[in-house]
Design a protein that fits this description.
Blueprint lengths: L1 E5 L6 E5 H6 L3 E3 L6 E3 L4 E2 L1 H4 L34 E4 L9 E4 L40 E2 L6 E2 L30 H24 L1 H7 L4 H11 L12 E11 L8 E12 L9 E7 L5 E7 L1 H4 L2 H4 L7 E12 L5 E7 L2
């Protein structure tokens, strides 16, 4: 059904259907000034929307000469307070035709009042429409789809469920809260995934973590015992320098005709500010022609005592080692020494 509403901003009145008000939750835009307002609160009753203003009384032109008016010639049946005028003139002498003149309609807007007892359509915080906003006393609305029924004279207003009034474009749809069984399941999966990611990162970067945080090395070593891995120390071969080296022949009094014993002395220094792994030494023995006759790779277990193998190469420290070398059938004239990490 069509209603008539008035814009509170500019006072323009225009029709709108009840279905449109319900679809827009009561908020509409003025067609004159584009002001958004609550259409339910600005509904104008049908009697005030189209005021019936009677047409003005036709003007009566008297003939030339001054007409005479007689108040005594008015009929006695005239209603009190309603003026009547008698026009006398040529051709109307003695006729005494009464003429009614209506007072002009008041230019003031009709006043509306809300009745004392308001009719509430729901128990929420929705708007309440009184008798003054009713379109008609015999209006009957039956909402069987949503379970609401109103047999009175008020308009149906959709409940707000605790929301403050506002335009439709700022309305945020509520979703049911709470965490169900699916939410708990996915939360557990996320936690398990995070734990697996942390353990994998600890396994891959165990050397870097132990180097930067030495206090975590015991925990990482216990973790690696279950996985069969080791937590090694950093390997910065550029920070390990050979400070001194020498190769000496060892004579036993009776030198073998086809063999000799040599002693390699080396001084290693760790210039790094953290402990490192022990490097592997590469020794190349050359003959008188400069050709490499013998090449030996000396692992840490070959040149370090058992006690030193259980510890890393200390930071900012030097170590002196001596390694015996046995050579047979070759005359050695020199050597080349290098270090590397396998």
């Amino acid at each position: 059904m069509d209603l008539t509403t008035r814009c509170p901003q500019c006072g323009a009145e225009f029709p709108i259907s009840l279905q449109q008000l319900q679809l827009r939750k009561g908020y509409i835009r003025c067609i004159n000034c584009a002001h958004i307002f609550d259409g339910y609160e600005a509904v104008v009753p049908a009697s005030a929307a189209e005021p019936s203003v009677p047409p003005a009384a036709p003007a009566v032109h008297a003939p030339q000469g001054e007409p005479s008016f007689s108040a005594s010639s008015a009929p006695a049946a005239a209603a009190p307070g309603e003026p009547r005028f008698t026009v006398s003139g040529p051709g109307h002498a003695g006729s005494g035709v009464p003429i009614r003149v209506r007072e002009p309609a008041s230019a003031e807007q009709p006043s509306f009042t809300l009745r004392d007892t308001e009719q509430r359509l729901d128990d929420g915080r929705g708007h309440t429409v009184g008798q003054a906003h009713s379109v008609g006393r015999d209006a009957h609305y039956d909402y069987q789809d949503d379970g609401y029924r109103d047999t009175g004279s008020g308009l149906y207003v959709e409940p707000r469920h605790g929301h403050e009034a506002g335009p439709e474009f700022v309305h945020v749809e509520e979703r049911p809260g709470g965490i169900g069984l699916g939410g708990v399941f996915w939360s557990l999966l996320v936690l398990l995934g995070l734990a697996a990611a942390v353990l994998q990162a600890a396994y891959i970067y165990r050397v870097q973590i132990a180097s930067e945080l030495p206090s975590l090395r015991p925990a990482l070593e216990r973790y690696c015992e279950t996985l069969g891995c080791t937590v090694e120390y950093p390997r910065r071969i550029a920070q390990i320098a050979i400070m001194d080296s020498s190769l000496q022949a060892v004579r036993d009094g009776q030198e073998a005709a086809q063999g000799s014993r040599l002693m390699l002395n080396v001084v290693l220094r760790n210039n790094y500010d953290r402990p490192q792994q022990w490097p592997t030494l590469s020794v190349e023995l050359v003959d008188f022609s400069g050709t490499v006759a013998v090449r030996r790779l000396l692992a840490p277990s070959d040149y370090l005592p058992e006690l030193s193998l259980q510890r890393p190469f200390p930071a900012r420290s030097e170590v002196r080692v001596s390694v015996p070398l046995a050579v047979e059938g070759v005359q050695i004239n020199g050597y080349q020494l290098d270090k590397f990490f396998p």
